[in-house]
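Propose amino acids for all 695 sites.
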């Protein structure tokens, strides 16, 4: 057993089982934690997260301090900022799946703050023995002690949303960010860069995980950068705070949300409710394993082993009643107390599995989230697949959820690089994928359209590498996807060849037009607008360095791409074509929309296996648009629609990605008029023509 200071018994203050966590009162704090199978529980109070021993150890009396499966106690005269943790005593039995270890310091599953010692060690939580000096501890927090200044979530319609997926640390950690060292890579640092986000024009940031995570779950010598290794579902990540006070991360995160809202930018969190950082049977004990292992995780038939539908070693038992409540309480907390606008659920299909791992037709936790009144105004986005092969894009439950459309990414990549048998599929992707979502009578915004995200190549690398180059990850280049649908345009990696660089620039612009010009909700990856590269690494989860960080010198180097993306975003947000203002679902919208498909000849689209081009004409209330895509390696001439007497005017060239900046993008007032009956589109290029609708 670990050496303990004097163990106190405070029998006069039994406390109560609700609420869970550490609830602040005027004269003290009520602690409550679920641990059904424990035989004894100690509350540990610390003066500092680095303490080798707790300042106080309070033994909870199972008669006075336990109600059903909940241990609780009221401790007078302690305040917000108090550092605390638990030790739980009980059986460790491979037949029952219990894994109690009283040597391990345990986080509170409902802790609103986490303090990280300077000598934090994942290994100390894995191996036998006392890990007190090396363990993360919870922090008592009073969520009400903050001035929101009348801030509320923005509730911007999805139809008016452009998402920017970004990493809080990587956005400003690069030395070129121009920020002081203490602000780089922090919530406060992001606040300083809000003018950049406003200038770019995006309307929502989707933040990679900000729940407290384990940075040491990575190959030796590296650290976990992405943050998909949660140890808490309530506490903001300590490492992103410039204020190292125990309450600093909470307040600084809320400062960031408030500042983004003042700028009109929504905050969407990438949330991981499918697994934790505790890993498999060889992993550390931080919290859930040591409190009630068989409740929190899906276990194999051999109860000493963990089901692994996440690809990370364990799977959270999301449809178990205790875990369901914790997930809902976590979501409520981030909406009500932290004012976030929505959530993107990592590997959301895992949440449809039951306690044996089998997919459920009607998963309780997903319906809980779907119908929850607190979440009614929040954006809910599902990554509708998991690491064990369950794929639910187009069939995810409910009416509230939007879905990452991986098929959009794959089909558009394949077409732009010149693959055969792609034209028919990209037509569907342009129209919000009715082949995937049309049967659900849902709005076009059901589809979240993206070409790149954190997981995979950056956009620059999609057009610069044929193969992944993950050697620096220390796994022999075996990690990461092999199916990238990328094309290096003739040279693997960086090149000084001006023609290859020209081709890469226009392919990047092609991808941006496709993403921002399709029905659905567009999502852009941080840094793609300035050609951020990861040097061909398509799995940079463990690269907390310049491979992953945004290099701000790229803004000057690739000002042409940045200008192009800015103008595209503004064009999209100003067009009524992307908003079904009459409440039409996707199938109804497509029935009434004036969309005409063409090939090189009008009204003769070429859907054949070897086709590499397509054109379409779309009418909005104010404009006609004619989009021409040529993914062929030679120039092609396309007939242009003619105007009858009800369509007075001429086509104007808004976009031609073959042209260099600034001629590649013009507004209507300054766009060149097209007099000829046809337009020649150069190889691997895209053209957008517009005309006023005077009917």
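Proposal:
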């Amino acid at each position: 057993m670990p050496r303990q200071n004097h163990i106190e018994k405070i029998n006069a203050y039994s406390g109560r089982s609700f609420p869970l966590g550490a609830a602040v009162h005027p004269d003290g704090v009520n602690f409550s934690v679920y641990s059904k199978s424990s035989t004894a529980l100690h509350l540990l109070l610390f003066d500092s997260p680095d303490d080798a021993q707790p300042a106080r150890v309070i033994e909870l009396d199972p008669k006075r301090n336990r109600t059903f499966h909940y241990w609780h106690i009221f401790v007078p005269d302690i305040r917000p900022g108090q550092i605390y943790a638990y030790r739980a005593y009980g059986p460790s039995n491979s037949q029952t799946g219990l894994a109690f270890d009283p040597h391990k310091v345990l986080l509170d599953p409902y802790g609103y703050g986490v303090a990280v010692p300077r000598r934090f060690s994942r290994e100390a939580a894995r191996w036998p023995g006392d890990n007190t000096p090396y363990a993360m501890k919870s922090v008592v927090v009073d969520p009400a002690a903050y001035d929101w200044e009348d801030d509320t979530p923005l509730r911007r319609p999805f139809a008016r949303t452009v998402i920017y997926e970004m990493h809080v640390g990587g956005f400003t950690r690069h030395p070129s960010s121009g920020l002081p060292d203490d602000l780089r890579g922090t919530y406060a640092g992001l606040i300083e860069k809000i003018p950049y986000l406003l200038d770019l024009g995006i309307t929502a940031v989707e933040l990679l995980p900000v729940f407290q995570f384990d940075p040491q779950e990575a190959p030796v010598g590296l650290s976990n950068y992405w943050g998909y290794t949660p140890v808490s579902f309530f506490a903001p990540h300590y490492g992103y705070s410039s204020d190292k006070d125990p309450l600093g991360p909470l307040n600084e995160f809320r400062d960031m949300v408030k500042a983004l809202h003042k700028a009109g930018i929504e905050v969407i969190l990438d949330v991981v409710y499918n697994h934790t950082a505790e890993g498999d049977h060889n992993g550390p004990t931080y919290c859930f394993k040591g409190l009630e292992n068989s409740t929190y995780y899906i276990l194999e038939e051999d109860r000493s082993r963990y089901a692994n539908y996440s690809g990370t070693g364990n799977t959270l038992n999301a449809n178990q009643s205790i875990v369901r409540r914790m997930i809902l309480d976590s979501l409520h907390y981030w909406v009500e107390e932290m004012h976030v606008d929505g959530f993107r659920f990592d590997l959301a299909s895992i949440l449809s599995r039951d306690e044996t791992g089998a997919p459920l037709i009607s998963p309780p936790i997903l319906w809980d989230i779907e119908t929850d009144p607190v979440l009614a105004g929040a954006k809910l986005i599902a990554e509708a697949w998991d690491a064990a092969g369950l794929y639910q894009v187009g069939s995810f439950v409910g009416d509230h959820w939007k879905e990452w459309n991986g098929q959009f990414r794959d089909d558009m990549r394949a077409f732009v690089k010149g693959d055969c048998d792609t034209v028919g599929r990209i037509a569907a992707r342009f129209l919000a994928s009715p082949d995937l979502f049309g049967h659900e009578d849902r709005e076009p915004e059901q589809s979240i359209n993206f070409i790149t995200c954190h997981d995979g190549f950056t956009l620059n690398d999609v057009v610069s590498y044929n193969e992944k180059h993950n050697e620096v990850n220390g796994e022999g280049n075996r990690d990461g996807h092999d199916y990238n649908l990328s094309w290096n345009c003739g040279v693997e990696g960086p090149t000084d060849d001006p023609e290859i660089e020209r081709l890469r620039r226009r392919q990047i612009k092609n991808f941006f037009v496709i993403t921002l010009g399709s029905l659905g909700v567009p999502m852009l990856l941080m840094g793609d607008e300035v050609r951020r590269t990861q040097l061909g690494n398509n799995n940079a989860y463990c690269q907390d360095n310049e491979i992953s960080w945004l290099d701000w010198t790229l803004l000057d180097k690739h000002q042409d791409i940045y200008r192009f993306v800015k103008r595209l975003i503004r064009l999209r947000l100003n067009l009524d074509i992307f908003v079904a203002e009459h409440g039409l679902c996707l199938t109804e919208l497509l029935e009434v929309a004036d969309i005409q498909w063409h090939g090189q000849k009008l009204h003769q689209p070429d859907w054949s296996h070897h086709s590499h081009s397509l054109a379409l004409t779309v009418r909005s209330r104010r404009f006609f648009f004619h989009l021409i895509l040529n993914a062929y390696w030679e120039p092609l001439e396309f007939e242009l629609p003619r105007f009858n007497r009800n369509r007075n005017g001429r086509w104007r060239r808004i976009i031609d990605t073959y042209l260099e900046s600034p001629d590649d993008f013009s507004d209507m007032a300054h766009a060149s008029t097209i007099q000829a009956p046809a337009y020649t589109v150069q190889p691997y290029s895209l053209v957008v023509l517009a005309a006023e609708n005077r009917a």
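The domain at 158-277+315-578 is CATH 3.20.20.80 (TIM Barrel). The mean pLDDT is 94.
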